[in-house]
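batch_manifest entry 22 of 60
target: Endolytic murein transglycosylase
source organism: Virgibacillus massiliensis
requested by: lab member K.T.
priority: normal
notes from requester: please return tokens only, no post-processing; we will run our own comparison against the previous entry in this batch. if the run fails, retry once and flag.
--- input ---
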Amino acid sequence: MSKDKKNSNFRDNLEARSEEAKTVRKIVSIIIIALLLILLIGGISGYLYVKSALEPVDPESNEEVKVTIPIGSSSSQIASILEKNGVIKDALVFRFYIKFNNESNFQAGEYTFTTGMKLDEIIDSLKNGKIMAEPVHSITIPEGKTVEELAEIYAKELSFTKEDFLNKVNNRNFIEQLMEAYPSILSDDILNPEIRTPLEGYLFASTYEFYEKEPSVETVIYEMMKKTDTVVSKYLDEISENNFSVHEAVTFASVIEKEASTAKQRKKIAGVFYNRIEQGMKLQTDPTVLYALGKHKERVLYEDLEIESPYNTYYVEGLPIGPIGSYAESSLAAALNPEDSDYLYFLHDGDGEIYYAENLEQHNKNKQEHMN
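--- output ---
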């Protein structure tokens, strides 16, 4: 083949490759432009959709929608309920909105919304329990009550029995469900086989309102645990700063509750208990003896003090193995912020007064003067 013909073929091949490269570049450019347009259109569409989903379903409407939020509902479940009832446009967008704004602690109950409500108005209603229905039951649980005692209170007011309640609070599977639901409050400490009732001290004393005619035991317990979580969570940092576990703090609060009736007394008695622990003394508090005995007595006898129980603070060092009843928030506050003093003893008279002493001699003198 001649030299000129070879050069001609080379040029033809070069031109063909050049045309092919141009075609590839054009195709790639078209694809990139198309993808960018798709992303742009998708982004704009997504923005407009989310913007629309954040607006009221029907801003001009005052149509009322009755919605039931069951006890124990998660945020995702609440969002689904609201979307299903036409109160919000999109459950997923609602969930992202409350997560972004760190909104939580929604209340169960019967609500009346309108389709013209903004998301913030809906959230405010759910957080503050602004419900339209009147409670069917309103039950007050006094401070200091044991699980067995509050089981009796509920059994008198609701459709289940005392045994139903006690069976549920001692059910291992149910307790583990609660531990998963409230991991910062309930620990493995409550599963200690020597603990009499796992939820003793964890069902907060308060007034509870129920909107169902026959709420279940589970409903009642979840409502009480929700209240406990609300109260105790405020003190988690202080509990940690005091080198307590939540279980120890709650146990301490329950003991203080049984020994005092006012916030001032509680702080003072908490200080006495701290002093005894620092001196290597046992707490020696009679309410723990009564809890160990499992019955109420007007007077604790010397023979009672000898009961070998992990709850008896005449027998064990430090705190009992677990709470001995419910408590007021001021008892928990006192356990974490006791009043400083040099007192090592205190004595109740028959009129509600408490007398303190720095040593055994003074304590015995108080007995002679105030126990006759």
